[in-house]
Amino acid sequence: MTASAATIGGVEARTPYPQAARRLLRETLFAAARDEVQQRPWSEITMAEIAAAAGVSRQTLYKEFGSRDEFAQALVIHEGERFLDAVDAAVREHFDDPRAAVGAALGTFLRTAGEDPLVRILLGDDGGAGLLPFVTTQGMPVVQWATARLTATIEDGWPEAPPAKVRLLAESLVRLAISHVTAPGESPEETAKRTGELLGPFIDEALGV
Predict the structure, then answer these.
(1) Mean pLDDT lowest among 90-99, 124-133, 161-170, 182-191
(2) Main-chain dihedrals φ then ψ at residue 11, nearest 5 degrees
(3) Residues 36-61: pLDDT tens digits?
(4) pLDDT grade for 4, boundaries at 50, 70 and 90
(5) Does residue 147 contact residue 87 with C-beta atoms inside 8 Å?
(6) ∠118-20-5 over CA atoms, to 5°?
(7) For 135-168, how does the pLDDT look when each residue is reduced to its tens digit (9 = 90+)?
(8) Residue 200: per-residue pLDDT
(9) Which residues neighbour 96 within 8 Å (Cβ) at sequence distance 6 or greater?
(10) Are 19 and 46 spatial neighbours (Cβ–Cβ below 8 Å)?
(11) What Cα–Cα distance (Å) separates residue 81 from each residue in 87, 103, 182?
(12) Could you identify which of 20, 139, 154, 173 might form a hypothetical disulfide with 135, taking C-beta atoms 3.0 to 4.6 angstroms apart as the criterion?
């Protein structure tokens, strides 16, 4: 199956060409930016250099993302997708135990993020013109995106749970995860254990245990 095709109900359905082309463009630009960031600080990288590395014009890059800050925010979210995929899988493995699901989610996120080269680079910047503000002082889009994803996962496992409490739990976990990634203390396992103990009563109430 090609990158522009998907299977729905056993029947292959092709993604419209413009949509597939745009997806490929964005993936190429993100890959180029990731390569650049691994070589030097984000503050020293220009949009023109990213475009050149991706083999497109600077105008094409700006047309797709609007501004350098918007591209940086999209890059952070794109990289975060890998972490949220791992978190989603961890939660789904514990649909029979809400507390274990929350612990697995947080532990998996912290462990995966801690092992990622780009995250280590991101955390090593000066907090000014680097990428770090896009998960801290300018991080609301990341928080909203991650909260929506985690909310959907929790709702799949506990469909009867009150939506407001599910969202509150998801947002609290996202904010805690970002806090612990940007200022790590104990090991991911110990952090997850302590967070599970702290949130345990609310988890039981929210998810109907």
Answers:
(1) 124-133
(2) -110, 130
(3) 988 888 888 999 999 999 999 999 99
(4) very low
(5) no
(6) 110
(7) 777 778 889 999 999 999 999 999 999 999 999 9
(8) 92
(9) none
(10) no
(11) 10, 19, 17
(12) 139
- Residue type (1 letter), 184: P
CA-based nearest residue to 100, from 199, 1, 31, 205: 199
Q: CB–CB of 12/5 below 8 Å? A: yes
What is the Cα 197 distance to its own chain's centre?
25
Give the residue among 188, 209, 28 at the shortest CA–CA distance from 107: 188
Q: Could you tell me which residues come within 8 angstroms of residue 15 by beta carbon, excluding any fewer than 6 positions away? A: 4, 5, 6, 23
Reference 150, options 176, 189, 188, 184; nearest CA is: 176
Domains along the sequence of the chain with CATH: 14-66 (1.10.10), 67-209 (1.10.357)
Buried b or exposed e, range 37-73, using 16+ CB within 10 angstroms: beeebbeebebeebbebbebeeeebbebbeeeeebbb
| Distance from C-alpha of 85 to C-alpha of 81, rounded to nearest angstrom | 6
In angstroms, rounded to a whole number, what is the distance separating the alpha carbons of residues 116 and 209?
35
State the Cα torsion 23-62-28-129 to the nearest 10°. Answer: -120
